[in-house]
Amino acid sequence: MNYLHKMKGSGQSPPKVGLLEVFWSWVGSFLGIATVSLIHYKLLDQTSLMMIIGSFGASAVLIYGAIRSPLAQPRNLLGGHILSAIVGVTAFQWLGGQPWLAAAVAVSTSIALMHLTKTLHPPGGATALIAVIGGESVHHLGYLYVVMPAALGAIVMLIVALIVNNIPKSRKYPEFWW
């Protein structure tokens, strides 16, 4: 009975966010995703390279909308995406013949590695998964996937976060680097 009782929760919902905070979260996420997308579609779309992946949407929520969260800090953003990309590519290369197994190994191993390196960034799990299920365009990149889109896209989003999140006096980013 105690096991099921734990699922009840505390009964408290998170505090309401003010409109100014909503505004700056919107501006940051718009500019971050727009910058990465613009680089992708204007510079790289005709090549076999890519700059944007789905996990960046989740990163945007953290680095523009939850800027004080430990999961949103630069160490976590960069380390989470880079380490998870390495794990995802490796899992696909070793286990790609069994995609269900490669996917499970990629995500679970990236979570363990992010924990061990203090770089836990939930979108990193998606970055690892994309390396496995992303199709030929992703698989063709091999370990270049770690550099582009994972590292360079995260760096572009970080630069935008550093600029936008420090414009209003009420916001400060990052809380820590290392």
- How many β-strand runs? 0
- Helix content percent band: 55-70%
Task: Give the count of structural domains.
Answer: 1
**DSSP helical segment count:** 8
- Characterize the quaternary organization of these chains: single chain
Note the run of SSEs as H and E.
Answer: HHHHHHHH
Mean pLDDT: 95
Unreliable stretches covering 5 or more consecutive residues: none
Describe the sheet with the most strands: none
The structure class reads: mainly alpha
**End-to-end span in angstroms?**
42 Å
Strand content: under 5%
Shape: globular
Radius of gyration: 17 Å
Structural summary, described in words:
With 178 residues, the chain is mainly alpha-helical. It has one domain (19-164). The protein has eight helices and no strands. It has helices at residues 2-5, 19-44, 55-65, 74-95, 99-116, 123-133, 136-139, 144-164. Helix 2 (19-44) runs antiparallel to helix 3 (55-65) and helix 3 runs antiparallel to helix 6 (123-133). The chain is globular and about 45 Å long.
Summarize the helices and strands and which ones pair or pack.
Elements: H1 2-5, H2 19-44, H3 55-65, H4 74-95, H5 99-116, H6 123-133, H7 136-139, H8 144-164
Helix pairs in contact: 2-3, 2-8, 3-6, 3-8, 4-5, 4-6, 4-8, 5-6
Keywords:
178 residues, mainly alpha, 0% strand, globular
Q: Can you describe this structure in just a few lines?
A:
By secondary structure, the protein is an all-alpha fold. It has helices spanning 2-5, 19-44, 55-65, 74-95, 99-116, 123-133, 136-139, 144-164.
